[in-house]
Amino acid sequence: MNYLKKIYCRTFQTGLKIALPFLPYRKPKIVGSVKALPDIIQKKKCSKVLIITDAGIRKLGLTRRLETALTNAGIPFCIYDKTVANPTTDNVSEAMNLYLDSGCDCIIGFGGGSSMDCAKAVGARIAKPKQSLAKMKGILKVHKKLPLLMAVPTTAGTGSETTLAAVITDAQTRYKYAINDFPLIPRYAVLDPKVTLSLPPFITATTGMDALTHAVEAYIGNSTTYGTRKDALLAVKLIFENIDTVYTDGSNVDARRNMLHASFYAGCAFTKSYVGYVHAIAHSLGGEYNVPHGLANAVILPMILEAYGEKIHKKLARLAVAAGLAEKDTPCDEAAGRFIQAIKDMKVRFGIGDRIPEIREEDIPKLSHYADKEANPLYPVPVLMNAAELEPFYYMLMEEPGESSGNEGSEETESRKGEDEDDRTGN
What we know:
Layout: H1 3-19, E1 29-31, H2 37-43, E2 49-52, H3 55-59, H4 64-72, E3 77-80, H5 89-102, E4 106-111, H6 113-127, H7 133-136, E5 138-139, E6 148-153, E7 165-169, E8 176-180, E9 188-190, H8 201-220, H9 226-248, H10 253-273, H11 277-289, H12 293-308, H13 313-322, H14 332-349, H15 364-375, H16 387-397
Parallel strand pairs: 1-9, 2-3, 2-4, 4-6, 5-8, 6-9
Antiparallel strand pairs: 7-8
Helix pairs in contact: 5-6, 8-9, 8-10, 8-12, 9-10, 11-12, 11-15, 12-14, 13-14, 15-16
């Protein structure tokens, strides 16, 4: 990256960091069960609910406890279940029309990051009916209060229940962009482990590593605060203590609950402190090839951490201590190496490879341009890179002729594949 662009990026990031204490960030109120939502809806004097989810969630019956609770409380509802992985502008339009035609006045995003992002975008369109989503792209362009928005994550990874962003894919161009504004933060986050119990092992792993990526990128960036550092460290601790348990024993309610809280705290960290090039690259792959976001993050994370080099060793050492991989007096370089190796070992245990075989060489200039455009100047990364400097990572991710990607679980079709989409940060 040339010198002038570096100055521009760092000046922009410094300005945002200075503004952080004055911006209206807030954490959603945590609710422990979907059964508590009818009381909230009634107290807020709402009369009809739109539940936004996907077909896989509906097929598995995960919304039934919520539907029963609403029915028993006499609260009418309707369901939009056509959300796809990497939700599109068409999804948002269809759900918005159902909301308006049915006379709804509150929204529940129920599912992975895709469903929650779709719900946020629908709320934004309801709040600003004369403005397209494309015109809301970027930072602080929504402004208006959304209808009551509640989020029920069915994966412990995206953190979308905590964030001020919705990531949407243009249905025509496949360009993926983020809408970032404070009204998009859900009012309530329902951390109910029972809705995550049927999550298959591979998606449990990739969504958990998605949360880990959020915490790590937020922590190693240059715009941290005391609060975001605390949240990121707690998230890392919880993930390392629980992810293997939920992978091997998905019925462990306590471990599932801990992973939901890890995802929540990681989401709180990156909402304020942002992410980095792992996410920028992953988003370009999700938009172009529909690569599940958590899987992409898991594949890419150790590669980018190694590329940052010594610049992040002190911070990785602190993460290693939180993860139980090192002591406080362990040399920073050694502790950082242990942390990166632990992530690589985690990938091996979970059957996550080192390649994204969907990548086509002719697409790489476009993909790196998308990543550059997303990350710079917004993300306060430890080491700045432009599109040309990001291109080599795509080549590293390409599958060599005759090589197996190693992503054995990525072919799972258990109707929940789309759930590990998408977080968002202005990412």
